[in-house]
Design goal:
Length: 313
């Protein structure tokens, strides 16, 4: 796999791959197949592709109906629409009856090609994590995104898979195996633990490099599965260093930071700093400008780690 890959391309290619294994897999699109790349699936399997238009509530309802007759529907749209426009339908006809619907939430986070706050979704993990029956996953790269989609398709019940738009660095090789619910140690360290999720875990690795240049040893732990969470892995990593920073391309309210704080509060109280979006909406702008304005770059993560270290030395 190349050094960087776009998850939307992985999404499309993996759907085609899965369709060859699962003759009951279908794709429902919300008039965004060109953006999410679901059009690739349509080219290969036109009879198994349903264009639902800009009608997300109906899309979710139809997916529920298809699941009741043994099909495996994958939904293709932007995260902001799949989380918000059809939330009532998701709750009532998918989550409550625990139906086998897979939500491919594209264009998640801030970096959505200058679409602005209307098309950015930075609170989806909080919403989906609180929804009973849902498995909630934020892959770090294209390798993991493909494996997550395989796991989701093979598992019963609804899954929410958070996918970002633009090419991102690949950190896993072909030996990597995604295990639902498990954390992944990306780097060993002794001074402080950085927990990340999604592509922000890649930035946490880059932050650890910055800290290492100053003699600070940071453990980096990737949390791909936000629900179910891995309490043992969280506690073990926190115990190792005694200091924790969580980082996410998401509001710090209800996402990874809240999840880790809940686990540690119950099992192993630990000094913790949550890093991410500070209860704000985004805006339209270039990726480089947005990452700086909202403080999500590796040097911002390193700053959060330094501040926590200073406070407890």
């Amino acid at each position: 796999m190349p050094e960087s890959v776009a998850m939307r391309d992985v999404f499309a290619n993996t759907l085609v791959e899965l369709a060859g294994q699962y003759p009951n897999l279908v794709v429902l699109d919300g008039d965004l197949a060109n953006s999410t790349r679901a059009e690739v699936f349509e080219q290969h399997y036109p009879d198994r592709f349903l264009e639902m238009g800009i009608a997300e509530q109906n899309l979710m309802g139809v997916a529920a109906g298809l699941a009741t007759v043994g099909l495996i529907p994958w939904l293709s749209s932007f995260a902001v629409f799949l989380v918000n426009r059809d939330l009532d339908q998701l709750r009532m006809v998918v989550a409550q009856p625990n139906l086998n619907v897979k939500i491919g939430a594209g264009y998640a986070g801030l970096f959505t090609a200058r679409t602005g706050k209307t098309h950015q979704e930075v609170s989806d993990l909080a919403v989906m994590r609180a929804m009973p029956h849902l498995t909630v996953v934020a892959p770090a790269d294209g390798v993991e995104a493909r494996l997550v989609m395989h796991a989701a398709t093979a598992s019963p019940g609804p899954w929410y898979v958070r996918l970002v738009r633009d090419p991102t660095p690949v950190i896993f090789d072909n030996s990597y195996r995604y295990v639902p619910g498990q954390t992944v140690t990306l780097r060993q360290g002794t001074d402080i633990t950085l927990f990340g999720t999604g592509v922000q875990s890649v930035r946490a690795l880059q932050a650890a490099d910055l800290l290492a240049a100053e003699g600070i040893s940071a453990e980096v732990v990737h949390v791909p599965t936000l629900k179910p969470l891995d309490p043992e892995g969280i506690v073990r990593a926190a115990e190792k260093t005694g200091l924790v920073v969580t980082t996410e391309e998401h509001t710090i309210i209800g996402g990874l930071g809240s999840a880790v704080a809940e686990i540690l509060g119950e099992h192993r109280p630990t000094p913790l700093r949550r890093h991410g979006l500070m209860d704000v909406f985004g805006e339209s702008g270039a990726n480089d400008d947005l990452i700086e304005k909202y403080g999500l770059a590796p040097h911002h993560i390193a700053d959060a780690a330094r501040a926590l270290l200073r406070a407890h030395r």
